[in-house]
Hints:
Elements: E1 2-7, H1 11-22, E2 27-30, H2 55-67, E3 72-74, E4 78-84, E5 87-92, E6 97-105, E7 109-111, E8 127-128, H3 131-134, E9 142-146, H4 150-159, E10 165-169, H5 179-186, E11 191-194, E12 199-204, E13 208-217, E14 220-224, E15 227-230, E16 234-236, H6 239-242, E17 267-269, H7 281-301, E18 304-307, E19 313-316
Parallel strand pairs: 1-2, 1-6, 2-3, 6-17, 8-15, 9-10, 9-15, 10-11
Antiparallel strand pairs: 4-5, 5-6, 7-16, 12-13, 13-14, 18-19
Helix pairs in contact: 1-2, 1-7, 4-5
Amino acid sequence: xxxxxxxxxxxxxxxxxxxxxxxxxxxxxxxxxxxxxxxxxxxxxxxxxxxxxxxxxxxxxxxxxxxxxxxxxxxxxxxxxxxxxxxxxxxxxxxxxxxxxxxxxxxxxxxxxxxxxxxxxxxxxxxxxxxxxxxxxxxxxxxxxxxxxxxxxxxxxxxxxxxxxxxxxxxxxxxxxxxxxxxxxxxxxxxxxxxxxxxxxxxxxxxxxxxxxxxxxxxxxxxxxxxxxxxxxxxxxxxxxxxxxxxxxxxxxxxxxxxxxxxxxxxxxxxxxxxxxxxxxxxxxxxxxxxxxxxxxxxxxxxxxxxxxxxxxxxxxxxx
Length: 320
């Protein structure tokens, strides 16, 4: 029986594991992607205490800090969460079942798709979602980034280190990146920002050759490209939480308060899966720490009736 099971091993989950270890909670961290999406970020310049480091370095620092404490880890994938009485049952793809007094849910997000013709057909054949992962393949090629937020600007800046030309296709009137990144893009001769435009179709044979646009550009609706990098945001990975009636907003993001509490007692959430407006590694870390403190308080203030065997139940008094 764990005091808390942390589901998700990105920045928020690792920070939660570290803090749970400090509070001497019996903790299990479950995540099939240690480090999370921050590991796909080339340069991090906005995490307090580090002027500049890679996403992988930040993730490694968080992981090493968590592992300095007495926590358990499992690089598995959670397949189901059940709530029985006031305890939680967590099942994984390794056919293992774990019991816990509390849950800290930090599963993050997945890349949002364009859902246009050609996107599925050319996945990993010119259609990508991570410049750090796949950008180096396009040395001296022409590529495009689809999206108007800060992520798209940073993707374009990274791609400009390899490609000969980088278009940023923005459906709105202007870029919405951080001012410093917008300025870097403006000053980069390889990058061209095109606003008020939408990508309608991705074309090619064995690989991407061009894209169809919803308006003319240089006299044609077709733009020749070697690759398309999609950076239009993310979808919250909240389905497992919804299965135990955790409330989400219309975007599927888990609704939390300032203490990282959800509507379900004992179920806490943190990071990009939540309804926080400003999603950053540092805000996810803060929510993870808040979730642990809330879980710690909850564990110490309650008694628990939890399943032990198939039919047996036990009243577990808190010994803390």
